[in-house]
Amino acid sequence: MSSSLHTEDSQWKNPSIYSRKDKSLGLLCSNFLKLCDREGVDSTIGLDNAADQLGVERRRIYDIVNILESVGVLSRKAKNQYRWNGYSAISKAVDLLKKEGLKDLSTVSSTCRNVSNVIACNNSDVKEKGEGKTAGSHKIDNRKEKSLMILAQNFVKLFHCSDVDLISLDKAASALLAKTRRLYDIANVFVSMNLIEKIRSPDNGKPVFRWIAWKENLRTGSLVSAKSDDSTRRTFGAEITNTTPKRYRDDSSSDVMSNGQVKRLKVSKDDELKDKKQEISTEQLNERGTKDFVFGPFGPSSLPRSGISGKENLKQIQNWEDLASKYHPQYQNKAANELFAHYVEAWESWQVEAANELHKQHEH
DNA sequence: GGCTCCCGCCAACAG
DNA sequence: CTGTTGGCGGGAGCC
């Protein structure tokens, strides 16, 4: 108790070493996934427990859970209870999302014209939730529309329903009528799941994201973070002493799970960036013994948009975009900025328009 | 200096 | 009402 050997050797204990990276959503997500995955079948995740195990506030768990739910790995069972669906659920969910997105595209609404806007608009229509409420047609949950889950789903659609491979958060934000800040959260989680990756635009070095899970031929995924032996995980768990002990559940912690094995792995700080997805092995995750992780029904044969040569074109166009981005800083005043914005929007618009055309005549 | 994005306030929502 | 969820943006860390 009072034996506080306060010497200067306690490096990881020194509050001045604090790095916000140690608390990033992505890292937390990795740990959370580990937590979930180690449980066998019938794994029910308790938010309190999870927060406790990971040494973070509940608030952060909500963020992660919502995003994870958007791609199906989790689903809400009850208050404070989530069910772990496994990684195999992702392809299904994404597939569905893609279908949804494409459908929305074909039924172009009046004002919504390009992919982004269609996606952004489509959640403003009715939810068709059976017949629960009698004449309960008041203003639709504005709150719900803006939820992280919906936004995350739309973000996914953006990748799968448009021809662009590289998407900057900036663009995505304006496309989805959302705040960029929120997309950072989502992107970080997806990155930690290896669904997408962040790369730099060659010219300007502006970060953009690209979908990398189960690409063309390799049908296994990624999600390396789930298990694997990569010891690049940062310290975490019960070691975060400086994590504002503000509002945790009391110590009586009824450990639902066996005992937290999420203890610190003790690794050096900077090396996680090295091994990105790079090598996506065929297995390395299905060691749980269950039928998890199948990733079957997701082939390259999607995108009915028969863009044979169009694809090439669009690739080309992307360069233009990058080019445009590069020039962005040149515009100083507001007017010019808006002009630029218009330009970008126009670019997106016509691109999609073309896709739509193909779509239509493909329909017949 | 701009890009990232953690933190936690506090308002909806559920019980 | 209390407790749970989670939008939201201030502002600080990081490049």
Automatic annotation (TrEMBL):
Superkingdom of source: Eukaryota
Compartmental location: Nucleus
Pfam families: WHD_E2F_TDP (PF02319)
Keyword match Signal: no
Family of this protein: Belongs to the E2F/DP family.
PANTHER family according to UniProt: E2F TRANSCRIPTION FACTOR-LIKE E2FF ISOFORM X1, TRANSCRIPTION FACTOR E2F
Record protein name field: E2F transcription factor-like E2FF isoform X2
Organism: Solanum pennellii (Tomato)
